[in-house]
């Protein structure tokens, strides 16, 4: 069923995070009334805070907080999750699995409050590891999630919660839309602290090497592993399209521009105007060897796919992280 978004009200969960913060801004631009933006973090720690929205700090692992969050909303965007890049998910599997409390209680609250639609942000980490063993692995199609052998911890929880959405739709008639995000990067995201993903981490490391004069960068793994990276604007546009669509099964939302991590470093070095000596940490968290998004389904169903070139998105991300790092230096000197 296609959705008429006029006069709809929305709640965004995980709004203090990277994607949620951008989503709130976009929904407001579209004229959708965002009645509530919710995150476990105190509002002062959110990446972006929007005016004219009720910004609430609530732990959505708790059922009563989920009811407070969704009350009166037509549309629920459930992005809240304890997560991060490989450095976080490989070392915090129990915390990642505990996201199941948030997803379960959010679905129950949405059902109880009779919301029109529920969006769930799944991940490419649901895909079977055997399909990602080679750096030249074929792009992942939606069917490649089964037989199930997802990323330990984080991926299992995502796969389980996807299926919960499916059964809430089948058994309770609740309309659920599920996107499998592939590595998303951009401005106003995490770039330091241990949860950052490769694009932001590499930008930060290149800037650090440039500013300190060390001229050296440490890369996790051997640099030959492959990924595709989706710029935030494509992620937000795709999220809107999928939420408004009649697509009842989980669908890839990712770029199909595949690069090695060494290629990623090349591009960031070019943006920075510097060449660095590379060292490789073969014991660091590395994840799968090769991952890319097969976009046949999204092209077929929506006649659209993420297309912002990595070079363009990385330039914006690099400049933003550069400004963030400079303002930290100014603040700590003051
Ligand atoms: P993020 O960490 O920046 O944002 C997630 C937000 O959820 C955080 O601000 C966090 O404080 C909040 N949160 C965590 N536990 C909560 C709880 N119990 N109650 C309320 N809020 C809670 O991450 P993001 O990159 O914006 O990701 C958003 C969603 O997309 C997540 O579900 C994530 O798993 C999924 N996803 C992201 C990527 C990516 O590359 N960024 C890839 C695949 C899937
Ligand atoms: N984070 C990070 N930091 N990764 C690095 C670094 C670094 O300094 N240097 C090299 N890498 C390598 C990692 O070892 C990994 O092989 C690759 O870059 C990508 O790492 P991440 O961006 O951290 O994660 P990912 O692509 O393996 O998985 C991410 O994307 C999924 C969706 O596609 C994670 O964010 C998952 O949580 C997410 O669901």
TrEMBL record:
Transmembrane segments: none
Residue ranges of domain NAD-dependent epimerase/dehydratase in the record: 11-253
SUPFAM superfamilies, sorted: NAD(P)-binding Rossmann-fold domains
Gene3D superfamilies: NAD(P)-binding Rossmann-like Domain, UDP-galactose 4-epimerase, domain 1
UniProt protein name: dTDP-glucose 4,6-dehydratase
Domain of life: Bacteria
Organism of provenance: Acidisarcina polymorpha
Record keywords, A-Z: NAD
A Pfam family it matches: Epimerase
PANTHER family xrefs: EPIMERASE-RELATED (PTHR43574)
């Amino acid at each position: 069923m296609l959705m008429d978004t006029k006069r709809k009200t929305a709640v965004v969960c995980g709004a203090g995070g990277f994607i949620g913060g951008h989503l709130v801004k976009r929904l407001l631009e579209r004229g959708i009334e965002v009645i509530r933006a919710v995150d476990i973090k105190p509002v002062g720690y959110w990446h972006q805070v929007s005016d004219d929205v009720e910004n609430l700090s609530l732990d959505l692992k708790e059922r009563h907080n989920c009811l407070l969050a969704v009350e009166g909303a037509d549309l629920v965007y459930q992005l809240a999750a304890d997560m991060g890049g490989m450095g976080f998910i490989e070392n915090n599997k129990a915390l990642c699995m505990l996201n199941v409390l948030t997803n379960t209680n959010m679905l129950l609250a949405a059902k109880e409050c009779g919301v029109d639609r529920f969006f769930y942000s799944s991940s490419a980490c649901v895909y079977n590891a055997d399909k990602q063993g080679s750096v030249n692995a074929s792009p992942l199609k939606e069917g490649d999630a089964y037989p199930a052998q997802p990323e330990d911890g984080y991926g299992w929880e995502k796969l389980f919660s996807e299926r919960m959405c499916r059964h809430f739709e089948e058994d309770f008639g609740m309309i659920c839309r599920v996107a499998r995000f592939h590595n998303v990067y951009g401005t106003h995201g995490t770039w330091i602290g241990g949860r950052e993903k490769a694009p932001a981490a590499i930008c930060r490391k290149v800037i650090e090497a440039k500013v300190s004069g060390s001229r050296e960068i440490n890369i996790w793994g051997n640099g030959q592993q492959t990924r595709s990276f989706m710029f935030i604007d494509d992620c937000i546009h795709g999220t809107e399209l999928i939420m408004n669509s009649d697509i009842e099964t989980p669908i890839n939302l990712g770029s199909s521009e595949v690069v090695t991590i060494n290629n990623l470093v090349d591009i960031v070095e070019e943006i920075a105007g510097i060449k660095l000596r590379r060292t490789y940490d073969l014991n660091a968290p590395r994840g799968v060897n090769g991952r890319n998004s097969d976009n046949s389904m999204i092209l077929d169903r929506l006649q659209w796919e993420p297309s912002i070139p990595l070079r363009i998105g990385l330039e914006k991300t690099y400049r933003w992280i550069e400004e963030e790092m400079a303002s930290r230096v100014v603040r700590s000197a003051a």
